[in-house]
Automatic annotation (TrEMBL):
It comes from the Eukaryota. GO terms for cellular component: methionine adenosyltransferase complex. CDD domains: dTDP_HR_like_SDR_e (cd05254). PANTHER family: DTDP-4-DEHYDRORHAMNOSE REDUCTASE (PTHR10491), METHIONINE ADENOSYLTRANSFERASE 2 SUBUNIT BETA (PTHR10491:SF4). Transmembrane segments: none annotated. Residues 20-192 form the RmlD-like substrate binding domain. This is RmlD-like substrate binding domain-containing protein. GO terms for molecular function: methionine adenosyltransferase regulator activity; oxidoreductase activity. InterPro entries: dTDP_dehydrorham_reduct, NAD(P)-bd_dom_sf, RmlD-like-bd. One of its GO terms (biological process) is UDP-rhamnose biosynthetic process.
Length: 306
């Protein structure tokens, strides 16, 4: 909801000058992009210095920054990938469970909204939501994917955070940005793999959706949100676009889920999320394939169109 003015009309959101964001994840991919966006838009912000699991440090950050909203882009996702979490369980719990819950709790005590970049990798296609059916998981659905320790703990935290009315949970999936040199970018990852599976998935185009998360804070939105572009795109569809826009000589090899299972430790989540709730709030939200072309492939195009 926007703010009510004296004559009863509703402002779309707060003016940049009346906002102050406190952001966790300064050295991270999403946290870095978010800070850059705030700078570009003239929104005052500070990065949190505290570790998420250290309550006293979080309280000191909030006292120093006096924010209107807090954003959490901090957490562990594992390096080189989520398999790291299988063998670093306590470290994963410390940041993603104890840390995230501590931050939510401190924010609640201070009456602050916490916009939390969470994950949609807590679902997998099932009988009620089959592959290629167009039936996506909704915000109120209970997570059904606990195949990896990372996803299992993220699902637990999401469930607990439902009790915090000050939290806006954004279910991010397979994030993509226009920076095709970034090794965290899903496109960069799959172009560098020796072999890739080919499964349609919901994905998050950060260039389009990070500005929307800022707008969500301005509107003081809370609760759970599937935070992906509408529809699904498969690995091969993305790689075909990569070949057509970036490198005409690019080739790749596919393998099956069974073959993939032999080279990874924990199973990965594949799913479609229902984006009707986000689309209702942001009518301009673009379908995944259109957003990919507009925000990623056209700005990076290296091939000739003639
Ligand atoms: N990237 C993905 O594939 C993906 C997919 C879905 C959802 N997400 C969500 O988005 C969030 C951010 O992802 P990202 O890709 O930007 O991650 P990232 O690049 O790995 O960055 C993580 C950030 O979290 C900080 N951090 C880690 N543990 C911390 C702790 N205990 N206290 C304070 N800061 C801590 C790191 O700081 P230090 O360097 O100081 O440790 C770093 O700044 C993740 O937590 C995840 O829930 C990501």
């Amino acid at each position: 909801m926007g703010l009510m003015t004296e004559n009863g009309s509703t402002l779309a959101g707060q003016e940049a000058s009346s906002l102050k964001f406190l952001i966790y994840g300064r050295t991270g991919w999403i946290g870095g992009l978010l800070g850059r966006l705030c700078s570009e838009r003239g929104i005052p912000f500070a990065y949190g210095a505290g570790r998420l699991e250290n309550r006293a440090q979080l309280e000191a950050d909030i006292a120093a920054a006096a924010p209107t909203h807090v954003f959490n882009a901090a957490g562990v996702t594992g390096r080189p990938n989520v398999d790291w979490c299988e063998t670093h369980r306590v470290e994963t719990i410390r940041a993603n469970v104890v840390g995230t819950l501590t931050l939510a709790d401190v924010c609640r005590e201070r009456g602050l909204i916490l916009v939390n970049y969470a994950t949609g990798c807590i679902f997998e296609y099932d009988g009620g939501h089959p592959l290629d059916s167009g039936i996506g998981f909704k915000e109120e659905d209970t997570p059904n994917f606990v195949g990896s320790f990372y996803s299992k703990t993220k699902a637990m935290v999401e469930e607990l955070l439902k009790n915090y009315e000050n939290v806006c949970t954004l279910r991010v999936r397979m994030p993509i940005s226009s920076d095709l040199t970034n090794p965290r970018n899903f496109i960069t990852k799959i172009t560098r793999y020796e072999k890739v599976v080919n499964i349609p998935n919901s994905m998050t185009i950060l260039d389009e959706l990070l500005p929307i998360s800022i707008e969500m804070a301005k509107r003081n939105l809370t609760g759970i949100w599937n935070f992906t572009n509408p529809g699904v795109v498969s690995h091969n569809e993305i790689l075909e676009m990569y070949r057509d826009y970036i490198d005409p000589n690019f080739t790749w090899k596919n393998f099956t889920l069974e073959e993939q299972a032999k080279v990874i430790v924990a199973p990965r989540s594949n799913n479609e999320l229902d984006t009707a709730k986000l689309k209702k709030e942001f009518a301009e939200l673009q379908p995944i394939k259109e957003s990919l072309i507009r925000h990623v492939f056209e700005p990076n195009q290296k091939t000739s169109t003639t």
